Fold:
Amino acid sequence: MRFFSFDSDKWRSGGGNAGGGETIDVDQLQAAKLLRNGLRWRLILLGLILLAVFVCTQCLVITRPDQYMVVQQFGEIKSVVTRPGVSFKLPFIQTVRPVPNNLRIYDIPISDVITQDKKTMVADSFVLWRVADPVRFIRTLSGSLSGAESRIENISYNSMKNVISRLPQSEIISGRDTLATKIFDNVGDTLSQYGVDLVGIETKHLDLPDDNKQAVYARMISERNNIAASYQAEGEEEARKIRTETDTSVSILLSQANARAAETTAEGERLYMELLAQAYNDPSKAEFYAFVRALDAAKVSLSGGGTTLILSKESPLAQIFYELD
Structure:
């Protein structure tokens, strides 16, 4: 038989024997009960906090500078967040989808192209592009970057093939600086239907196939040598014409100068003779001029190195000297 009795705020329980029993402290029971209740409320509060945090995270839209955030509701696009920062959406009902808006580079696979003169060339190029319209990008390409790059590759290659097929090989090699611009202009706004903006097309490598590169180079060198030879021949012909014209002009100028010099000399001699005639016709100076002429004649006679002059008495020169005596 088991019984309970109060004794000094303690429960005593006894069994059949009078000396046995168990004692339970009331304060310990109350403390255990309060501890269980406090733990329960803490767990409930922690669950509420976690739920609130989860709901808040479902409401927030965090946009980075290199992306768009597209807000969708049951698959339908509701809005597009373009500015970086924090914005809000309806939790659980609306979802967000990031779309990159930074400048991207896509390497077009190396491919062969045919020129206007039926020559094969190997082209290696790359494309710079970005997503300009995220709504159209998602609706047409399902927001797939690989799908966009596939469209870019096809359109860029077709543009390159069309441009190069209209140009001869020599013009392509000499005009590589403008080739990328022509390819870019030929693409136009074709990619805008996918929400993609094509920024530029650049050619990394445009060369001949290895099997016929040396033959083409040799032929191009021969053609350039022929062109150089023709230019040299034309230059020599022009130089000959210029030299001929210059020689003719010089001859004419020399003839004119010699004629003027002869006229001037003749005029000077005429004046000289007139002056001499006037001088010799002066009776007061006739003897003096006769003496001077005699000395000049004697000087000429002794110009051969001789020192002796032999004259006859009848010589006019001797007569002058006799008269002076």
